[in-house]
Write a structure and sequence with these properties.
Layout: H1 2-35, E1 37-38, E2 41-42, H2 43-50, E3 52-57, E4 64-65, E5 71-84, H3 102-113, H4 117-129, E6 134-136, H5 146-154, E7 160-169, H6 177-180, E8 182-186, E9 189-194, H7 195-199, H8 201-205, E10 209-214, E11 228-230, E12 237-240, H9 244-261, E13 265-271, E14 278-284, H10 301-304, H11 314-323, E15 332-334, E16 337-338, E17 346-347, E18 356-358, H12 359-364, H13 368-379, H14 381-390, H15 414-420, H16 430-441, E19 446-447, E20 452-456, E21 463-466, E22 471-473, H17 478-493, E23 510-517, E24 534-542, E25 549-556, H18 567-584, H19 595-599, H20 611-619, E26 624-628, E27 634-637, E28 650-655, H21 668-678, E29 681-685, E30 689-693, E31 706-712
Parallel strand pairs: 4-12, 26-28, 29-31
Antiparallel strand pairs: 1-2, 3-10, 4-5, 5-6, 5-7, 8-9, 10-11, 12-20, 13-14, 13-25, 15-18, 16-17, 19-22, 20-21, 23-24, 24-25, 27-28, 30-31
Pathway: Cell wall biogenesis; peptidoglycan biosynthesis
Main location: membrane
EC number: 3.4.16.4
Length: 713
Amino acid sequence: MKSNKTSQRMAMVLLSFFAVIFLVLAGRFLFIQASGEVAGVNLKEFAESKRTDSYTLEATRGKILDRNGMELAYDQPTYSIYAIVSEKYSADKKHPIHVTDVDKTAEEIAAIIDADSADLKERLQKGIDDGLWQVEFGSAGSGLSQDQKKQIEDLELPGIQFTEEAERFYPNGTFASQIIGLAQRKDGVITGLTGIEQQLNDQLSGKNGSISYERDGYGYKLLNPSEEVQAAHDGDNVYLTIDQKIQTLLEDTLTQVNKKWNPKKISAVVMNPKTGEIVAMSNRPSYDPNNPENVENWYNDAISNPVEPGSTMKMFTVASAIEEGKWNPDEKYQSGSFKPDSKTKISDWNENGWGSITYLEGMQRSSNVMVANLVANKIGEDKFLEYLKKFHFDQKTGIDLPGEIPGTILYNYQSEKISTSYGQGTTATPIQMITAASAIANDGNMVTPHIIDKIVDPDTKKVVEQKKTEVQGKPISKGTADETLKILESVVTSEHGTGKPYKLDDYSVAGKTGTAQIPNPNGGGYMEDRKNNYLYSFLGMAPADDPELIMYVSVQQPELKVTETGSEPVAFIFKNVMENALHYMDISPDQTDNQEEVTEKHVPDIDGMSTRAAKKALEETGMEVVVVGEGDKVASTNVQSGDAVIEGERAVIVTDEPTMPDIKGWSMREVLELGELLELDVETIDTGYAKTQSIKKGTKLNKNDYLAVEFST
């Protein structure tokens, strides 16, 4: 009886205990159901986060284009490969979407991406052994081209997936590289590092968007995925003032000079003196932004490398004298040497001079003594300094590029004040020289140089910003500018003018030569006095009476033969670029002897002609003509009626029955131009000139056909 009572009490205790536990748990469940929270965490939000995928919608970086809309920099898709290795990812075992054969997968992919198959096998197997969902293939599996992606997709290997990301591409290779600059992926984002890419990085970058949705355990979207999309806003497009054809002329010419004379450095700038628009600018050494390895010089020397300009400075000394009313071209002076004081002696470049000559002849012969006399005895040293500052030789030009470094006016001692008159001691950059010279070419108005033409929204096509001509000073009057131009023209045309090598066939030229000593890098004066140790330059404008273009060229320490002069590499650049650029711009020649010859160098009107007749008409201008297809009718061409013919330019005629031409040896620019004419999907590999093409010669072409072209230097 006693034992039975004890059992009943224990049963009641246990029943009470379980009842309390039940009530606590039930209460907890009721609380969770009512509040939806556990330990301060909202369960609904927690569940949604666990089954929600979200990722960034990357904005497309804006394009950089030339003044005519030719693309100079744009985003190009590349691909990275990864492998799903977990069996759990395959809901249907008969149709697996994970890697089922490690050996086969590794070997077949390795052959396409040029990787070690053993390394890929190890990565795949380790991922499986460690229970990972997916594995990547390292650097070998990234940066794949569209062609490589297609080859791998054609293998139909289960478990192989791709991610797409953009990389910056520069279709012209070494082309205005220090202007356009370089952008590379940094921390997952393409970021501008130099040039316009850096200067306008915020405008080019745009704004990323995002997308999120709910999915199941296998990664598939739910029927009601609660998808949220915030669209990306692509970066603005930037149009530059440079002209792709004139820039190409400049690049090709600099490359030829670099190969023939192997100078230490070359800088060249071509500007419209009326607007300040830079139509071409380049330096050597330069680099290919698609392959920025072993770069010798990242800097844009045209704006960031101040040098002693030499005798090109004399044009500003003479202009200052004219403005002050101190210039008499017929007055004579004794050339050879000059002592402005007991300590300073100035000598002409030929030491003995040319006897008693006029000031005009002194300018034509590039006499140091002549300009020294002007500063010491006519203009005055203090007044000359005022003009140097009016020409802004002591400040930046304000060009819209990063990294501009102005030169310095060295003007402490009388010897420095006098030597500045002929460009020694005081330093300036090419962009400073050409900016100051714009006053002489533009009725006394000195314009601010600029490289950006406009910024355009890619979606609305609305112009966000439009650059305008800006006059930053008027150091001289129109009358002084006109008289200086005539003097500079005589430097080129007179029988003893140092500028004779720069005379053009069809246009008059006004300009001034320069030969500057190279400061010794170890200090203590200048390098050894021999002709390979000079900076040779020319600052010229054409046509002389009303310049449309102004150009500065400098070549430092070229390897000259005994029979060669320092003006030869400089003149080669100036004459080739200036003559062809003026023809291309359709500027009327002012050298009448060659008028008939010039009119024959324009693209004829081939509208309505048969293919054969159009080919003949274009060949008669001296152009190399490529006919694309066998059709009798002309569907399109890459040249327009009335355009000036540039020597060596390739004309492409697309017929109404286009077939693939042999493009081996074509430049990347020409290949991309062909792609635009035929509306092909073109992928370029490497840089240089076309080496192989994926579409065989003679193959019939259709719109959006894929063409892969491999280039080689």
